[in-house]
Design a protein that fits this description.
Layout: H1 4-39, E1 46-49, E2 53-57, H2 64-82, E3 95-100, H3 103-114, E4 123-126, E5 131-135, H4 140-157, H5 166-176, E6 180-182, E7 185-187, H6 193-204, H7 211-215, H8 227-245, H9 247-258, H10 267-272, H11 276-286
Parallel strand pairs: 2-3, 3-5
Antiparallel strand pairs: 1-2, 4-5, 6-7
Helix pairs in contact: 2-4, 4-5, 5-8, 6-8, 8-9
Bound molecules: zinc ion.
């Protein structure tokens, strides 16, 4: 027994400082890293922290608390509405929301972070940083709800992973950005008539993206100067699935998207038991596009 004593003391000498270092790092590292991360937002910022969000705003007409409350309300209403269909996880980290006052600062931030620009997009969600970045614009509420939808679905069902089609991800975000929150419940938005008009015009100008091509579209299509047609069509296809084909079909397709490996561009065709061109014809007729 005696022999063990010096060994215990020896290990104690090594492990005790190690545990102390790990303990100190565990406490202070998140604080330091949060400061480093949020310093990317620059100076003159106002900050608010709520249960799930950490909002930083700069010269916008709303306080960071107003923004955080909007985020919390949308988040809890979304979870409440969909919890019977989606297994939501508790958020491990607070979601950061960087809200710039104008396009210029948003652009500068994006360029600094990603070494390129996104001149045709007004906001983005980074799954890696779990951060929403946007700037104050005419459709601020919609833009915020759009990115929150990306964030919620990403954390709930890993929407950033490649098996989920880009059109489906963007179409859902476009669909849910039209929602409003009233007394803690999500209220469905009306059909966006501008989207219908836009797609009608695009069809006339031979810019309509066929369903099979839309299902195969990539994120670059949604960043390009021609991105509006991709966004509007994706939105209208989600609307068509939910309101015309019904929620059961929509949920079957949702499940199909979630299976491992990229989703087949013919998945919808398999579910509806008709070729994509037929589905497309129905879609065009429903919105009186052709
Ligand atoms: Zn989006």
């Amino acid at each position: 027994m005696k022999r063990w004593k010096p060994k215990i003391i020896k290990w104690g000498v090594v492990l005790l400082p190690l545990f102390t270092v790990v303990f100190v790092l565990k406490i202070f590292l998140p604080m330091i890293s949060k400061q480093v991360r949020t310093s990317q937002f620059g100076n003159d910022k106002s900050i608010c922290e709520t249960t799930h969000f950490y909002t930083l705003t700069k010269k916008i007409p709303e306080s960071p608390k107003d923004v955080a409350i909007s985020c919390e309300n949308f988040y809890s209403a979304f979870v409440e509405e969909h919890k019977s269909q989606i297994a939501f996880k508790e958020l491990e980290n607070k979601i950061e929301v960087f809200f710039f006052g104008n396009r210029k600062e948003f652009d500068e931030y994006y360029k600094k972070q990603y070494m390129r620009s996104i001149p045709h997009n007004a906001a983005f969600y980074s799954p890696l940083q779990q951060r929403i970045v946007l700037y104050w614009n005419n459709n601020t509420r919609e833009t915020l709800y759009h990115e929150l939808t990306h964030m919620i679905l990403d954390i709930a069902v890993n929407f950033h992973e490649p098996q989920f089609s880009v059109w489906f991800n963007e179409g859902l975000a476009m669909y849910f950005e039209k929602y409003t929150v009233q007394n803690g419940a999500l209220i469905v938005g009306d059909l966006d008539k501008d989207a219908v008009l836009f797609v009608r015009q695009a069809y006339k100008n031979r810019l309509f993206v066929p369903l099979t091509a839309l299902c195969q579209s990539q994120s670059a299509d949604f960043r390009s100067s021609q991105n509006s047609i991709y966004y509007y069509e994706s939105y209208l296809f989600i609307y068509f699935l939910k309101h015309v084909k019904g929620n059961d079909i929509f949920l079957r397709y949702f499940k199909e998207e979630g299976k491992s490996g990229p989703c087949s561009p013919y998945a919808l065709s398999n579910i509806l038991q008709k070729p994509n061109v037929e589905i497309e014809k129905e879609f065009l007729a429903y919105f009186k596009i052709n």
